[in-house]
Specification:
Number of helices: 5
Largest sheet: 5 strands, mixed
Structural class: alpha/beta
Strand content: 15-25%
Order of helices and strands: HEEHEHEEHH
Distance between the termini: 58 Å
Number of strands: 5
Helix content: 25-40%
Bound molecules: zinc ion
């Protein structure tokens, strides 16, 4: 196992910690001079915060560890390609390098939707390595969402909707995220 795989495995351990508390399993670690100085895993739901992504939490810790907002000389290992917010924070922190597990075609900003890490015109560019332990990083996400769907299906079967008038039922059928659709 090479160095990148070794640290990605640690990022995967963080992702598992997220899954264990029902969060979407995304994890990361930040490495400086050959040692892990910060770890983070997604805690968006637990913290009731759109900002509580694995990368942001790890960047905060790394800055505290180094006593500097600059994370020059640091490499981030993250199981999923960073979103726009995290990619922005990585650039702001002047991180040297980002190593990713699997790509995020719908929100990734390290080459999928945008490439904020290597945008010409910005004052800092980040080296990218992708596809490290890709299968494991993808599997943990797929397993999480499959189990979530199965759980929701089982709950639905255990508690079938109460019979109500036709009009009310169609409103429920069209409802999204528990909110009734506007008629
Ligand atoms: Zn993010």
């Amino acid at each position: 196992m090479d160095t990148d795989q070794k640290y990605m495995k640690q990022a995967l351990t963080q992702a598992k910690r997220a899954a264990a508390i029902g969060e979407v399993p995304i994890g990361c670690v930040i490495v400086y001079e050959g040692r892990v100085i910060a770890r983070g895993y997604n805690r968006r739901t637990t913290h009731h915060s759109a900002l509580a992504h694995a990368e942001i939490l790890a960047i905060k810790k790394a800055c505290r560890m180094l006593g500097d907002w600059r994370l020059e000389g640091c490499t981030m290992y993250v199981t999923l390609e960073p979103c726009p917010m995290c990619a922005g924070a990585i650039v702001q922190a002047r991180m040297d390098r980002v190593v990713m597990g699997t790509k995020n075609p719908k929100a990734g900003c390290a080459g999928s939707v945008l490439n904020l890490l290597q945008t010409e015109g910005l004052n800092h560019r980040v080296e990218i390595t992708e596809g490290v332990l890709e299968e494991s990083c993808r599997d943990i996400l797929q397993t999480f969402f499959r189990e979530l769907r199965e759980r929701l299906r089982a709950e639905k079967q255990a508690h079938p909707p109460v019979a109500v008038s036709d009009g009310a039922m169609s409103a429920v059928d069209g409802a999204k995220d528990g909110k009734p659709v506007e008629s």
